[in-house]
What does this fold into?
Amino acid sequence: MNSTPVSSSDYPASSSFESLPLPPALLTNLDQLGYRQMTSIQAQSLPLILERRDLIAQAKTGSGKTAAFGIGMLARLNPNWFAIQGLVLCPTRELADQVANELRRLARFADNIKVLTLCGGAPMRPQIASLEHGAHIVVGTPGRIRDHISRQTIDLSTVQMLVLDEADRMTDMGFYEEISGIASACPTRRQTLLFSATYPDDIRRASAEFLQQPAEVKVEAQH
Ligand code: ADP
Ligand code: MG
It folds into this structure.
């Protein structure tokens, strides 16, 4: 369980979610979830994400990165278009489940947004059945998503936003080629967000290959 609480030092002075151009129902839901102030990484990244910029964001664990991309993704999602509009890649099944649960909480303002997880280690057949039913957002691990692409059981041609979460861990685990294949299956005209705790050479290479003129934000670790 990743429930590291956000510490007070993670909040910049006065940055309410209300200052962002977000749908009112989403703002109400954030308030109900107890999200009143943006964390530093949210305050730095959300205005850029909402402008549809590609982005590299570097911040430590527990700084609220999921809601940063989650709110950005939900703000541009069309619930009436039942197609995969958002794709989030995570290094492990556990992290994918956490991200999917957070997205479902954030998506409560609309009653029909479907978030599907697709991870390795789970049987293929129910995943294929779920894909046939459709989803607005898919969260998964690179190997399994790549597998669905090879079997032609997933259509990523409608993806508007691709998120590489914990990108440094994914490249450490050897997922670079899978990520590359997945990015190629998404439209070239899409928004791509890369979240990472560190910025090694693999991430530099990934950003050059998968992102277009990305903005960069970084929140230094507090001591
Ligand atoms: P990270 O991905 O940076 O490690 P998470 O996205 O998992 O961090 O967030 C850590 C915790 O902080 C989660 O429990 C999340 O619900 C909570 N959280 C995120 N943003 C806010 C906020 N603006 N206000 C209050 N809690 C928040
Ligand atoms: Mg995270």
